[in-house]
């Protein structure tokens, strides 16, 4: 086991930021911490790294108790926090070399590792650029290079794609998957459910400092009653017909807005067939029709009663 957290409690005055939080991260996982802003993700990471004191609980990393002075543990950890942390007076190359040099003394080896990090994040054309000359996406990639150049066994990324363009976001996500393929265990925090769903092998959903669900994305989705969401583009459906759909088997929620009929169904077989059969018998004209399986946001909504993005 790479990380073990048991009954972690952290308070800020009267605010209970972490409420008996427990989690386990196993070797080789891309472990997602998913939750809205203020759910406790960053606080949990800072406690795991011994950057914050906490009031109760036990934390082990690589099977050893974590502490502020546990440098033998910390040298095997790469950290990329939400706020970009680089030196404005150093070039991209010099920044990566500096942070790598905190762990690697051998100059020849360090030079090789810096070059590999630059190549990995795609900054070769920008190696001589100062941070103020880089776009937001390139800054994020520089931040990642600084955190991974020394080839840590555990990499922690806290909201690394906030406020970056889609191309840089895809580059970052692809890089994370590749780092995992090369042997690193990844802890990834985000409030972007689609990112976590795309790359994480195991997911913990947090809300108000508590773990509300843990598992693979398929396990999480199996916890809820929602089945598929069926969307029908139609212009001539009547209120009576909408009411009839609400009374069909397995239909839990039906809305009609902007010429779109949106039907949320409970788990069950042949839900789409039931709707198509109804449309045919009622002679309802329709355009596009498509279905969507539940998302992690649906899991969060059913468990907590609110949107994940709140």
Oligomer: single chain
Low-confidence stretches: none
Largest sheet: 6 strands, mixed
CATH fold name of the largest domain, please? Rossmann fold
CATH superfamily of the largest domain: P-loop containing nucleotide triphosphate hydrolases
Strand order of the largest sheet: 6-7-8-3-9-10
**N-to-C CA distance:** 32 Å
Regarding CATH, which class of the largest domain? Answer: Alpha Beta
Mean pLDDT: 93
Number of helices: 11
Radius of gyration: 24 Å
Fraction in beta strands: 25-35%
Q: Would you count the extended β strands for me?
A: 14
- Share of residues in helices: 25-40%
Summarize the structure.
With 310 residues, this protein is of the alpha/beta class.
């Amino acid at each position: 086991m790479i990380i073990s957290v048991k009954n972690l409690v952290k308070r800020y005055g009267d605010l209970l930021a972490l409420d008996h939080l427990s989690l386990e991260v196993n070797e080789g996982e891309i472990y997602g911490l998913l939750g809205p802003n203020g759910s406790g993700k960053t606080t949990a990471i800072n406690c795991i790294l011994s950057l914050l004191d906490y009031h109760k609980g036990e934390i082990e990393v690589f099977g050893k108790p974590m502490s502020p002075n546990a440098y033998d543990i910390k040298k095997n950890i790469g950290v990329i926090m939400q706020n970009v942390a680089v030196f404005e007076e150093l070039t991209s190359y010099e920044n990566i070399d500096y942070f790598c040099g905190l762990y690697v003394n051998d100059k020849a080896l360090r030079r090789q590792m810096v070059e590999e990090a630059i190549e990995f994040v795609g900054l070769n054309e920008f190696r001589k650029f100062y941070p103020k000359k880089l776009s937001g996406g390139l800054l994020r990639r520089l931040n990642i290079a600084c955190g991974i150049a020394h080839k840590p066994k555990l990499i922690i990324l806290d909201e690394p794609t906030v406020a970056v363009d889609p191309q840089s976001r895809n580059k970052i996500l692809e890089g994370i998957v590749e780092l995992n393929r090369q042997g690193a265990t990844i802890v990834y925090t985000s409030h972007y459910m689609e990112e976590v769903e795309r790359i994480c092998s195991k997911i913990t959903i947090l809300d108000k400092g508590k773990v509300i669900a843990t598992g693979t994305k398929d396990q999480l989705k199996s916890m809820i009653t929602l089945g598929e969401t069926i969307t029908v583009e139609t212009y001539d459906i009547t209120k009576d017909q909408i009411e009839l759909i609400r009374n069909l088997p397995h239909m839990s929620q039906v809305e009609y807005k902007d010429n779109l009929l949106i039907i949320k169904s409970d788990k069950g077989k042949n839900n789409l067939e039931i709707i198509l059969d109804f449309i045919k018998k009622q002679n309802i004209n329709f355009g596009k029709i498509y279905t969507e399986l539940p998302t992690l946001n649906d899991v969060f909504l059913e468990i907590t009663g609110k949107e994940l993005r709140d």
